[in-house]
Fold these 2 entries.
Entry 1:
Amino acid sequence: MEKNFLATIGRVFLSFMAAVGRIAIFTAHSLRHCIVPPYYLRLLGKQMMDIGYYSLPVVGMTALFTGMVLALQIYVGSSRFNAESAVATIVVIGLTRELAPVLSGLMIAGRVGAAIAAEIGTMRVTEQIDALVTLSTNPFKYLVAPRLIAGLVTLPFLVLIGDIIGVSGGFLVATEKLGFNASNYLNNTFEFLEIRDVVSGLIKASVFGFIVTLMGCYHGFNSTGGAQGVGKATTNAVVSSFVLILISDYFLTVLLID
Amino acid sequence: MAETPKIELRNVCKAFGKKVILDNLNLSIAEGESLVVIGGSGTGKSVMLKCILGLLKPESGEILIDGEDITNASSHKREQILLKTGMLFQYAALFDSLTVWENVAFGLIQAHGMKRKEAKDIAIKKLALVGLGPDLADKTPAELSVGMQKRVGLARAIAAEPEIIFFDEPTTGLDPIMGDVIDNLIRDCTQDLGATTLTISHDMESAQKIADRIALLYKGNVVWAGPAADIDTCGDPYVEQFVHGDVDGPIKLDILKP
C-alpha cells in the first residue's frame, strides 16, 4: 500500500519532469526560429492584429471595472482610519504594478491562448502541419514564431492602454460617487507614481504574452487524436497559462521590486 | 553500375514502443517510375511515407533521395531536398485559413519566393489542369466538396513542378467516378512532368491504373514487387489473397475470432 503510494508520487514527478523538459526543448526550438530567417512579416502583422488589436475591448473592459471596484474598495478600507487621500495612489500603483498585467494576461489566455491551441491542434490532426513540412516550410517559423513575437510585443501596449482606462475608471468612481475633488485626485494619482511602477507592469505583460502564446502553440502542436485531442489541448493551454502566469507573477515581482 | 534510384530505402526499421511497424524494409524507385505500394491498413504504408518525408525518424536504416540521405539530414538540408517533392494527402490537408489559390500557390510563394501576383496566375493555371475554374480561386477550402478539395490538393502538389510526387490514398473517400477522375489526373499530370511517383493505396483498381510497378507491403516488409501488368498472373499467394480480398490465406489480420 505504502509502496504503491510512493510509486504513484514517483510516476507523477517523473511525468512532470518529462513535461518540463519537453516544454523547455520546444521553447528553445521556437526561440531559435524567431531569430533565424526567413521571417513571415505578413503573418506577424496578422497575429498582432488578432492578439493585440482585437483584444482591446476585453482588456479595456477588464481594466475599467477593476479600476472602478478598486477605488470603491480602497475607499471603504481607508476611510476606517481616515486615509481617504491614499485612494488615488493605491489605485494607480495597484493597477500598473499588478492588476492590469495579471488580469489582462488571464483574459488573453482565455481569448488568445485557447484560440491558438485549437487552431494549431486542428492543423495537427488534419495533417496541415505535415503539409507545411512537405511544402518546405518550417512550421515553427510559420506558425509558432509569429504568434510568440506578437504576444511578446503587443501585450505591453495592451496593458499600457489598460492602465490608462483603469485609472480613469477609478477617477470616475472617486469623483462622481465618492465625492473626491477631481484635481486633488489627479494630483494624488501622479504624485507618488514612479516610472518603474509602470515599466515593471509592462515587463510582466510581455512575459505573460510570451507564456500564453507559447502554451497555446505547445499544446496545439502536441495534440493527438481528433476533436477530443484538440479539446484537451485547448483546456491544457488555458490552465497551464493561468498557473504559469500566477506563479511567474510572484517571482517577477520579487525580481522587479527594486 | 546501375543508375542511382530516385528514392531508395535501405534496411529501414521503425517501431513504436514494442510494436514493430517497418521491419528491415528495402525499396527503390527508379527515375520517372510510378510505384504503387499496396497493403492492408496497419501494414506500415503511411509510416513508410512519413519516414521518407522526414516527418518520422526511423530507428535504423537510411532513406536516400537522389542519393542523398534524408534521415540524418539537418532540417535545412531536408527542406532543400523536399523542394523537389510534392505530396497529396489522404484528406487533402488544405490550409483552411487560406483561399484556394493561396493553397495552390503556397509552395511557390513561401518556399520558392515567388511574387504573389505571379504565383496566383500559376495557381489558376494549375487549377485549370485539375478541372477547376478560376471562379473557385478565391473561395475557402471549406466551401468545396471533398472531390474538389482533393483536386485542389493535387494542384498544390504539382504547382512547383516537383521531380517526385507522393500520393497518400488518393481515391479513398471518393465515389468511383471521382476516384477515376483523380486517377486520370494523376496519370496525366505526372506524365507531363515526367515525375517519379510513390503512391500508397489499398484500391486495386486505382493501383493498376496509375502504377508502372506495384509492391505489396505486409508486416513492414515488401512481400511481392513486380510490374503492374503481372499482378493478376503472378501466382504469389499474398498478392492473390489481397487482390481477391479473401479472408483465408497467408495474410493474417489481427481480428479476434468471436
Entry 2:
Amino acid sequence: MMVLGGIGFTAPWLLLALAALPILWLLLRAVPPAPIKRRFPGVALLLGLKDDETVSDRTPWWLLLLRMLAVAAIIIGLAGPVLNPEAEQAEGNGPILFVLDGSWAGATRWPQQQEAIDAQLTRASRLGRTVGFLTLTRPDTPVFQSADAWRNRLAGLNPAPWQPSEEMLVTAQAAVEGLGTFDTLWFSDTLDYANRDDLLELLQERGTVEAYQTALNVLAMLPATYEDGAVQLRMLRATAGEEREIVVQAQGRDPAGNARILATATATFEQGATEAETAIVLPSELRARITRFDIAGQRSAGASTLSDDGLRRREVALISARESREGLELLSPLHYIEQALAPTADLIDGSLSDILPANPDVIVLADVATLSEGEAAPLTEWIENGGMLVRFAGPRIAASDISRIDEDPLMPVRLRAGGRSVGGAMSWGEPKGLSAFSNASPFFGLTVPDDVTVSAQVMAQPDPTLAERVIASLSDGTPLVTRKNVGQGQIVLFHVTATAEWSTLPLSGLFVEMMERLAVSSSAASATVAALEGTTWIPRRVLDGFGSLSDAGSLPGIDGPALVQDPTGPLLPPGLYTSGDRTLARNVLTAESTLTPTSWPSDVPVRGLAVAPEQPVVGWLLSLAILLLLADVVVSLALSGRLLSRSNAPATALAALMLFGAPAADAQTAAEAFALSATSELTLGHVITGDPQVDEIALAGLTGLSDTLFFRTSVEPSPPLGVNLETDELAFFPILYWPITPRQPTPSAEAYVKLNTYLRSGGMILFDTRDADTASFGASSPNGRKLQELAAPLDIPALEPLPADHVITRTFYLLQDFPGRHNSRDVWVEAADPNAEQIEGMPFRDLNDGVTPVVIGGNDWASAWAVNAGGAPLLPIGRGFSGERQREIAYRFGINLVMHVLTGNYKSDQVHVPALLDRLGQ
Amino acid sequence: MSDPLALRASSETEAAAFPALLARAEHLAGAVLLGAHGRRRAGTGDDFWQYRPAQVGDSRRAIDYRRSAMGDTEFVREREWQIAQSVMLWVDQGASMRFTSDDAIPQKIDRARVLSLAAAILLNRGGERVGLTGTELPPRSGRPQILALAQMFCRDDAAEYSPPEHRAMIPHARAVFISDFMGDIDGVRTALTKAADRGVRGVLCHVLDPSEEAFPFTGRTIFQSMGGTISHETLKANDLKDRYLARLAERKAELQSLCALTGWRYGIHHTNTPAQAGLLWLYGALDARGVAA
C-alpha cells in the first residue's frame, strides 16, 4: 500500500490515468449537442431566416467539468483508496485468537467493543490471518476461520449477565491447550476474576498477547433492601477515583399499567471511595409497584437490581372477636400474630366492613365464629378475587355450631363438636408435638422444633377431601392447619388459637416461618438457605447482559438453597423466580459482592477501544462517479430540451423515481386512506350492491349530484365513494344512497349493527327500488320484496308518504314532485308527530323533529343524476325538453335531500318567524 | 377542451362576471331589429323606463304633460332602449392554435373559444343575435344558439393555418375574429376588405402564447409547425430571436393598419394573462364607440 497525504492506495499506479483527463476534455468539447425538435406555430415567421454563423454551440464548460469529475472519481476509486490506513502493527501471519470476557461489566461499552473487534477483523482480513473467538463467559473450543466469516457473526455476540467463573476459566484453558501457536487479542471488561492469570500465562506461551479495554469505570448496584422505612440502595464502582454523582432510577408501572420511572435519587461516590449509598422513601403502594432499580446511563445487568417480595409489604387486616381488655395485652388474641407480622407487613385494624373496601392482601380472623350475612357475602367475593383468609380456632369456634353439619363456605373443613384437649390436668396423655411437613405442604423443608406442643385444638371431621386439605398435622396425625382454595383465593384454618393458650406454636420461630411460607408476610429480605429448604423456584423472567428482562421460557426450576448460594451462570441466570405466591429476585450481584479491577502484567500492551478503523473508500468514490454520470444524463437531457417536454414527462418521472427511490408506499393502510378521502370534505356515498351496472350508475349519479351541489350551493362535496357495508366505516357519510337489486347479498349481522348505529346517530339512507313505473311499493316487485327483506333488521321508525308540508319540500328549492328517472309520487319518510297540527295562518305544520333517517322511493334518482366523465347526462330522461325539466327537478330533489340532511329542520323553523316578530313588538 | 358542455360551463363562468354587454347598434336600415329584452337604459323602445326633469335641448314634444301637470316641473318620459344586432364570430380552429408552451397555460384555441363563447353569452343575454361567419350557423337569438355555438367551436380544423371565414357576412352587422394570425396575411386582408365593403365592423383579437412573444429558445433546434408539415432548422436559435421578433412586430403592425383602414378594432391577448382581461377588452371593444363611430 502506498500512502499519499493520509490516504492509502492499494493500486497507486492506476492514478497515472489521471494524466489522460486533459485529452478527454478536448475530445468531449468538440462534440456538439444534438438538435432539439420543437413544435412552434411561429415557424411560419421563421421561414427563410439564415443562421449568421455555422459554428455550432459547444458543450458548456461546467458540463465538461462534471464529466471529468466522474471519470476522475472512477480512476481514483479503482486505485483503491483507504482512509485511516493503519500503520502496520506487530507483523505476524499466524492465526489470531480474540478472547472476550463477555460479561455484564462490558455491556455498557459493548458497541464500542464491537467496533474495535470489527476494526481488528478488518485488519486481520487484509493480512489474510485466520481468526478464532473465545468468549470466557461461554467457553467453547475456538475455531479458526477467515476474518470475513467472523464479521458476519459479530452482531450475534452478546454479553452474558454473569462473570466468568472458575469452572469456565478451566474449560477455556482446556480449550486453548489443544491449539497451536497464535497471537491473542484480549478484549477485557476491566473486572478481575479467578484463574485469569493462569489463562494469560497459557496464552503468552502461545504467542503475543495484546489487551483492549475501556477506560470506563464499571458501576454496579447491590440488591435493594428495605430498612428504616426506606429502600436502601448501595452502588459499587470498580476503581476508586474522583468524586462522582450518579442517578438511580426506580422503574415500575404506573396505575395505568405503563412502564415509567417512579422515583429517582442521587448517590455520590466520595473521592477515593468505591461505594455509594442512597435511600428512597416511597409510600407502600408506590413501592409495591417498583419492578427494578437502574443506574442512569448504564446499560448492563450489573447496574440494575430487580425488586421482589422483599420490597412488597403485604397489608394484613387483623380481626378478633373479643374486645381486648385494657392492660391484658399478652392475652389479646392478636398479640402474637401482631408480633410475628409487624416487621414485614403493614397491619390494619378495623371492622370487617371497613376493611374490605381497602382490599387488603390477607385478613386474619382470630377466633371469630360467625359472620353476618352482610359480612360473609363481600368477604367471599373478596376471597374469590384472590384474597387470603387466615382463621385461628379458639373457645368460641369450639363452642359454636359453625361448620358442624355442613361445611361452612368460609371454613376449609367441617369441625367436630367441642374440640379436644390433650395433656391437660383432666386428660390423659401428653401434649402433642408436630409431625414433619409432607412434600405437598407449603411448609415442606421447615424444621419442626421439639418444644412446639399442642394441648388443645378443634378437630376436623373426617371427610373425603380432608386429606388433601391438611397442610400441617400433629404427631398423631390429627390436622393442625387446613387449607382450601376458593376462586383465586384461599382459606387457611389454624386449629389452635393465635395465643399461647392452646399451643406453644405462636411462641416459636416456626410460627413466623409458617406465616412467610403462606405469603402472609414477605420474607425475601431474609431469604436464607434454611428458610428456603425444600422449595423449588421457577424462573419467570431472566436478565440478559444489557439488563433487559425477557421471558424465561422453559428454563428448569432451581432448588431454594441453590438459588441463594450458587453463583449465577448459564444454569442460574439472574432474574425473577417464583414459588407459589412468592417471588424472589436473583440479582447479578449479591450483598457480599465486590468489584476488583483487572491488572495486566507489564509485558502485555493495553490499548483503548477508541480506534479509527481503516475505511476503504472505493465504494464511495465509485458511487460518486455513478451519481455524477446520472446527473450528466439529466443535465444533457435538460440541455437538449428533452427533460421536461410533455412527451417525455412519464419517462422523466420514471427516471426520477429510479434515481431517488420510490416514495414510501403503503404508509397508510387502505382503511386510513378511505377515512381520509371520505372526511377531508363532505362526501356522498352509495352502498355497493355487487351489480356492476347499478353501482356504476349510482356512482355516476352521485357524481352528478355532487357537481350540481358544488355549482349551485355552498355544499362542495368531494367525489362520491362506494361504501362496502361490511368493511367500511359509515359514520363519515351524512347520506347513503342504496339502490336495491334483487340479487344483492344481505348484509351480515355486524353490518346491520353498524347500519343501525348509523341511522340512530343522524345518518340518512335513501332507498331506491328503481322500479316506480312497474310497482308502487309493497311486495309486488322483486325489488320491493328485496327491500322489505333488507330493511327488516333495520331500526326504522313508522313511515308515511311524504306529506306536502314536509321540510324536504323547501330546504333549498320549493318542490312538489320528487322525480328521478321515473316520476312517481310514492316517496316515504319518517311519519310526522301525530299531534302536529296546522296552526291558523301558518303554511306548514310545526314538525320540529329531526332528520328523517330513511327516505324510500323507487324513482331511480341515480339514473336521473348520472353524468359521464365529461359532465354530460349519462342516461336519457323522459322525452325532449320536458325530460330535461324532469332531470332538473330530480337534481333539485337531490339538493333538497342533502340540504335536509345537513340543516335538519332549519327551514321548518321559519314558521315561527311571524311569532318571533310579534314577540319583538313589531 | 373539446367538450361542448365543459366549454360552455367555463364560458358561463367567465360571462357571469359581467353585466349584460351593451352593443351599440348602428342605426342603419336592415340591421336593426327590435330585441325581445330591454336594455335597462333609456333609449328607443315601447316600454316606459322613467320620468326625468326636462333639460335644455329636449324637444317640446318629448315633454309628458300628464306627469308635468302634477307639479311645477316639466318631465320627460323616457322609454327603454330595445334594439338587437347581429354579431358574427369567427374563431381560428387551425392546428397552429393548438399550441401551448407550458402545461399551466391553456392552449391558444382554448382561450379563443372561451373568449368568443363568453362574448356570445353576454351578447345573447343582452338579446343580440349571435352566429358564426359563413353559412353554417347564421346569427340567432335564444339560449339554444349558445349550445349550437359551443358545438361548432368544438370542431378542430386539420389545416395548419386557417384563413378567416368571410362568406355570408350580413351587411352592417358586427363581427369578431379571434386567431393567432400566424398564417398568410392575405386571407385576413381579403376578409377585412370584404367586411368593410359590406359595412361590417368588428374586432380582431390576436391571441398569442407568451413563448411566441418571447422566443426563449437557444441551441440547435428544429422548429416544426403544429401539424408537422413546415419545419425550419437552426444551429443557434438565440441568434434568430431578434429577427423573429421583428417579423412578429411587422405582422402586428400590418394587422393594425388593416384594422385602421377598415374601421375595426385590433387587440392582442396573451394566453398567460387571465381570460377575464381578454373578455373585458372584448367587452369594451364591442360595446363602444370605437366601432360605432
